[in-house]
Structure formats: structure tokens, C-alpha cells
Amino acid sequence: MDVNVPPQDSDRQLLDFLNASGRESLLIATKSDRLSNNQLRNALKGLSEAYPTATVVPFSAKTRAGRDEVWNKIRQCAAGFPSAAFQS
Fold it and tell me: Counting C-beta atoms within 10 Å of the first and last residue's C-beta, which end of the chain has fewer, N or C?
């Protein structure tokens, strides 16, 4: 989700669906490099308040900020699946 865009109804619907299905959600706040530290802090707080069940991670493809945290979260989630789920 673009950190510069306020929370949208469609985003809330998707997260509500994931919550109802018992899925953990990771909200990746992209383009975090475009905001000052104070603006980013406020934007992340707003996203956390709008989507309290999601883990919010600031991310920037440009600076690679948050990249390791995102991959670690993906690996943690993938580790919880049976290995047969990844075989074809």
C-alpha cells in the first residue's frame, strides 16, 4: 500500500476478508522514502490505527529500507505451512 495514500475501503475489505479467514496480514507501506521521518511516523500510525490487525512495515524499493523485515516476515509465515503445500 502506498504510504502517501489514505486508507481505502477496498483495502479494508481485503483485510477484513483475510482476518475472517484466519490469515495473518502484512501491510507493506511502500514509498516510505518520500516522507520525512515525522510524516512517515504519522502515516504509519494512521495505517496501524485504520488496520489494527495488520502488521505494518515501512518499505522503500529505492533505498531498500524494510526489505529484510519483509522477507523475514514472509519466511516466518511460509515456515508455518506444511512442505507439501509447496510441491506441485
Answer: C
Q: Which residues contact 85 (CB under 8 A, 6 or more apart)?
A: none
| Dihedral angle sign, alpha carbons of residues 71, 24, 21, 19 | negative
Task: Give the pLDDT confidence of 47-78 residue by residue, as tens digits.
Answer: 999 888 889 999 999 999 999 999 999 898 88
* DSSP for residue 54: S
Other beta carbons within 10 Å of 70: 14
CA angle 59, 10, 81 (to 5 degrees): 60
- CA–CA gap between residue 18 and residue 8 (Å, rounded): 16
Closest-CA residue to 57 (of 36, 42, 76, 73): 73
Q: Are 3 and 58 in contact (CB under 8 A)?
A: yes
